[in-house]
Design goal:
This protein is mainly alpha-helical and about 425 residues long. The chain has helices at about 30-40, 80, 90-110, 110-120, 130-140, 175, 190-200, 200-210, 220-235, 260-265, 275-300, 310-315, 320-335, 340, 350-360, 365-375, 380-390, 400-410, 420-425, and strands at about 45-50, 85-90, 120-125, 125-130, 220, 275, 305-310, 345-350. Helix 4 (about 110-120) packs across helix 5 (about 130-140) and helix 12 (about 310-315) runs antiparallel to helix 13 (about 320-335). The model is unreliable at about 1-35 and about 40-85 (pLDDT under 50).
Length: about 425
Amino acid sequence: MAWRAFVRLPRQTALARCRPAARPGDEGDPLRLLATGAVSLLGVGGWVFSREREPAYAQASIHSVPEALGRPPGPASVFEADGAGFSFLSPEYRRNVFFVYEKRLREHSPPEKVFEYFSSIKSADGTFMTSLDLMRAAVPVFQPADSKHIRSGSLGGEKKDDEDEHASGVSSDFFQMFDTDGDGLISFPEYLFFVTLLSLTDEKCKATFREFDVDKGGSLCREEFLQMMKHMRLSTTKGRASGYRTGLKTVTDVDDLSGGLVHHLFGDGRREHKLSLKAFEAFLTKLRTEIDSLEFEHYDFKRQGSISAEDFGYSVVAGASVRQLQHFIDRAAKLSSSEVGRSGRRITKAQYMSFCQLLKHGNSRFENKIKERVGKGGRLTRDVFLQLAKECGARLSETMIDVVFFVFDVDGDGELSPAEFLDVVSRFQ
């Protein structure tokens, strides 16, 4: 039941619609409703009892419904296909519910719980993350449209998805630089370090660096750097942690970065050097670029080197606030039945990375150009969007522009609302 505190289900579901007077044994029969309620308490997915195809599904706006996705209606499970009297909630519906749950979990749960949920390595030696786990814990991502998975993690005692099909063939050269023991795993203190830096803007990180540069020499020693990281960690809700959680191996010092991470930045104790602000800025850029790359790998789990317009659309709207989220999910869901979705056009990794650098990092040159133009009374049309992107050195594909305008230009007037668009897309603000 704990998960229900985080999830606001759509106002209209298959169980909540008005029905005519119930007949004995029909959906409105008290015994069937009682059984439905009892089963929903026992599992995340829940059950939907129906003697025939639920007509309300075809009217639902939620992206979990095949009809809303433009896909032909079909049985929701093998049980329905065999003519049995009940069916599971569709996988698409459950993915939607879990996405909202995971988004709230990232925002409102203590770091220990987030770390446990998204960590895929749980053994007698402790709980650890892979680089892909770290990305999912830091960045809201939908499950790819063609994936069998419905969630990105699980807590102790919960049913897990099968082996992570997304992790196959994924390696991170960036995180391997800090891997002194060769296991390729990220500990809880390292997770706190990375998620702290990803939670703060570049400007905030650089300002804090200068604050701890006591002698104003433009660099920090090891001890000054560790004190700075502790200060930044305590300034964010995502980094404020004790290291203790029931069922997990305890961490005595959440600021212990004595392993490969600090060794990479400062060298070993015998030939230690200082970390300059320029080197720190380069490190931040590499970290965020690597997260962008891992996000692409998450959606490109079949390793095709490209992702569908539908998956790109979901990646764009994933940053929306929970209050706005359902509206943008509904828009992204319609991509598969739109002209751009049916065309089969795809987005390459180079194009995706260019879009992330242009927009997802916040306070970018492109974002400032948009605000400046709109501030002078200009409109953000398709041609203007492309022109400003080219001025910033990015060449976005026609497919990406089609997706952006399909999702955000709801009234079809050929213009975007800059404030709403940037608020949703920019990841680090």
